[in-house]
Design brief:
The chain has 209 residues and is α+β, with helices and mostly antiparallel strands. It has one domain. The protein is 31% helix and 22% strand. It is built from seven helices and eight strands, in the order H-E-E-E-H-H-E-H-E-H-E-E-H-H-E.
Length: 209
């Protein structure tokens, strides 16, 4: 009788998975851009009162959101100084928001991407986490700072300071933790570590059609 008890204890201690049942009907995506990752949410899944900046992306089917250091993120070639500044000092942050038309798999073809299936309550916690990351200064909507890096995209002022222990990938990992994923005591540092962690938690690799 010892073996069945041992097996139950072993399964209880194993790394938790996301079980893809009928209740997990809302898909979100994490896409790996190399230095940073993006979080992709279906626009129609966002409640009307949350993320009012979505109105800046008419015709989009999804929003991709990333968070990062204000100067480093917007620079096409950040160089050594911006890299060191971003890593060594707490500095202001921005959000990068992209309007995605069509399938995320096709829009981000060639990049690593995983899908996470959530229930409605978990999804709303994640969306509220993103919603509160915008620095709106008591306005209803944050104003774009400048055009984004690709596609139909904008940079917005964000809350929180960027530093070595609070990076773009850490920001997404914390959002997934808010949604109920057990990300562990230490958040992934790189985007590849983040993708690998989400896959171990039941994330499904997505490829272009």
């Amino acid at each position: 009788m010892i073996w069945p008890v041992f097996l139950v204890l072993l399964l209880a201690c194993a790394e938790p998975k996301l079980f893809h049942d009928a209740a997990l009907e809302y898909a979100v995506y994490v896409v790996d851009h190399g230095k940073h990752a993006g979080l992709v949410i279906r626009l129609s899944d966002i409640p009307p009162e949350l993320i009012p900046e979505k109105a800046d992306f008419p015709g989009a089917d999804y929003l991709e959101v990333g968070w990062g250091e204000a100067d480093y993120y917007v620079a096409t070639e950040p160089g050594l100084w911006l890299t060191l500044k971003a890593a060594l000092w707490p500095t202001p942050s921005v959000l990068h928001v992209v309007g995605v038309r069509g399938s995320p798999a096709d829009f981000f073809a060639g990049l690593k991407m995983v899908r996470i299936d959530l229930d409605r309550r978990s999804l709303e916690r994640l969306i509220r986490y993103v919603h509160t990351a915008f620095a709106r200064d008591r306005a209803r909507r944050a104003r774009p700072l400048r055009p984004g890096l690709y596609g139909e995209s904008w940079f917005y002022p964000a809350r929180g300071k960027f530093h070595l222990f609070h990076t773009c990938n850490d920001w997404i990992a914390e959002g997934l933790r808010q949604a109920g994923l057990r990300m562990g005591a230490i958040n992934p540092f790189t985007s590849s570590q983040l993708i690998a962690k989400v896959r171990r938690l039941g994330g499904i690799e997505v490829k272009a059609d």
